[in-house]
Structures are given as C-alpha cells and as structure tokens.
Input
Amino acid sequence: MLSKYGERDVAQVRDSRAPGRAAAPRLRRQRGKLPYRLTGAGREALEAWLAEPESEPQQLREEIYLKLLLAARVADGGLPALLARQRRVYLQRLKDLAGLEETARSQGRDDLVLLYQGALLHTEADLKWVDACAQEIKTGDDER
Output
C-alpha cells in the first residue's frame, strides 16, 4: 500500500538508531520488513481516508462467485461438490477467527477483537450464502 502513495511522500523508512530520521533501505527488521513512520502529509492522507465512509457496494469479484458461475455453466454436476468444499473452508475459517478473537480478547486488544468480529460476521454471511445456494440447487433438482 505504501508504494501506492510513495510519490506523495506519506511515509519514510525509520532508522531505529535515530528516531524520526530516514534510514537506508538495507535496514531490515524481523522477516525482512522495513519500519516506517508517517510524514506530515501521510498523517493528513490517513486522517482523510479514515474520515471517508465506504460508499461503494461490495464487489462481486471474489473467486468463489466466479467459480460458482463457471461451475453452474460448465462443470456438469460439479456445483454441489464446489459448494460443499467451500462450506468446509468457511467452517474452518470461523473456527480460526474465533481462536484469534479469543487470543486478542485475552491480550486486551479491543481493536483486534472488533476486526475479528467483523471477519466472523462476514464469514457467517458467506456460509449462509453457500447454504442458500446449495438449497436452491437441491430445490431446482427436485423440481426437474
């Protein structure tokens, strides 16, 4: 994301030896990541971005939507199996997110608790959608 705003001078690599001073790119922390700090312009851009509500509707471009469309048109009979596999993925994700939420809660990280709760709600909605698709397919098969 920083590269997207790099030309606007919103962040600088931070030198851990001299707080607030730009560092040489070879300075790396754990896992090869560079520490950054916001510049004044970066702080302004962040505050403006945070103040803007999301106005665009959710885009239907996740892979599962494309797979569903293609499986329905091309993979004769493969749609129920696709939905069953996706359902298992969502159930595992719910379990993983619940664990992450519990860890965040035990560490007093309310910010992360909210993030994980949002992810849980989205995943629950995705699971409900997969179940509705499976039911629709079953109903359609029963009517034929």
Summary: The longest strand covers residues 11-13. The chain has two domains: 2-51, 63-143.
